[in-house]
């Protein structure tokens, strides 16, 4: 059983690594960052940012690379567009555009070369400073009654340890993820004792995979700085988490809600449909269209 609420430093900042090339979505990602792919008319990255804000985060730190300027432009003011919408008295569209530019306090740092997720997080060291922080990956879109990051923060505030998001993956897919082993200490909450990055088929310690939500102490930066390149010649965040697990302790939360992998074409399409079906303005029309297509297939 987890202890009662512990006095911990609040998590105010979230790091969003967005430097990847998005090769699984070529050719469109040749010119458009994969994080800007839309869920109907809202880009994936905005959905992730809004999850942060709904969880109590105050500042978003993007870790970018060459070609990712459209992400920062998207959250910046668009004075010419706003003026045009105002002249044409398109008030609802103007409100949407202004909301995006005022949604959060945004900053960015560059990852000069692709050296892995662990290296991307390490690039945010100066921007984060000496305080706990969250990391969210745009490939994981999570829908639920409570924001996924908030579920992790609740456990962090009671345990005072780093927390990773977990999700049960289908048997046979364990080799595609970082897999954990741990002891159940509360409903859907585990005290972790082992992490394995993409274990060989048949050798995974469980089916609980680490997915793209983390709450980490600032000590992770020192661990990352001394972590040698691992699988693929990159600095793996999972390797640093394994070290953290053995030194300070690490918790895992099996996240409640539906997960979509925005890095997988089929899962991305399902995410678009899910978001569309929940929209009051187009949901009924989309549902009718799907039923018609299925009846004619």
| Beta-strand content | 15-25%
Q: Which strand order do you get reading across the main beta sheet?
A: 8-11-9-10-12
The total of helices stands at 11
CATH class: Alpha Beta
* CATH architecture title: Alpha-Beta Complex
Rg of Cα set: 20 Å
Low-confidence stretches: none
CATH topology: Spore Coat Polysaccharide Biosynthesis Protein SpsA, Chain A
Largest sheet: 5 strands, mixed, barrel
Can you give the mean pLDDT?
A: 92
Number of domains: 1
Count of beta strands: 13
CATH superfamily: Spore Coat Polysaccharide Biosynthesis Protein SpsA, Chain A
Apparent shape: globular
| Run of helices and strands | EEEHEHHHEHHEEHEEEEHHEEHH
How much helicity do the residues have?
Answer: 25-40%
């Amino acid at each position: 059983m987890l202890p009662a609420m512990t006095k911990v430093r609040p998590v105010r900042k979230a790091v969003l690594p967005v430097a990847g090339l998005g090769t699984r979505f070529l050719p469109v990602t040749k010119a458009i960052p994969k994080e800007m792919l839309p869920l109907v008319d809202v880009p994936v990255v905005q959905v992730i940012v809004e999850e942060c804000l709904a969880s109590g985060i105050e500042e978003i730190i993007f870790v970018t690379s060459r070609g990712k300027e459209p992400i920062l432009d998207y959250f910046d003011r668009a004075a010419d567009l706003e003026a045009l919408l105002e002249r044409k008295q398109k008030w609802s569209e103007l409100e949407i555009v202004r909301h995006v530019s005022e949604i959060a306090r945004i900053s960015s740092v560059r990852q000069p070369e692709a050296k892995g997720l662990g290296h991307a997080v390490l690039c945010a060291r100066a921007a984060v400073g000496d305080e706990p922080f969250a990391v969210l990956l745009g490939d994981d879109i999570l829908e639920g009654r409570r924001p996924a990051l908030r579920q992790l923060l609740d456990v962090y505030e009671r345990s005072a340890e780093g927390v990773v998001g977990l999700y049960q993956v289908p048997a046979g897919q364990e080799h595609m993820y970082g897999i954990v082993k741990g002891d159940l200490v509360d409903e859907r909450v585990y005290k972790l004792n082992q992490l394995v990055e993409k274990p060989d088929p048949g050798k995974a310690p469980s089916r609980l995979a680490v997915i793209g939500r983390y709450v980490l102490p600032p000590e992770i930066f020192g661990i990352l700085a001394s972590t040698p390149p691992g699988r693929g010649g990159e600095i793996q965040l999972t390797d640093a988490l394994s070290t953290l697990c053995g030194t300070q302790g690490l918790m895992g939360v099996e996240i409640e809600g539906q997960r979509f992998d925005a890095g997988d074409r089929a899962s991305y399409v399902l995410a678009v449909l899910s978001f569309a079906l929940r929209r009051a303005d187009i949901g009924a029309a989309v549902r009718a269209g799907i039923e018609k297509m299925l009846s004619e297939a």
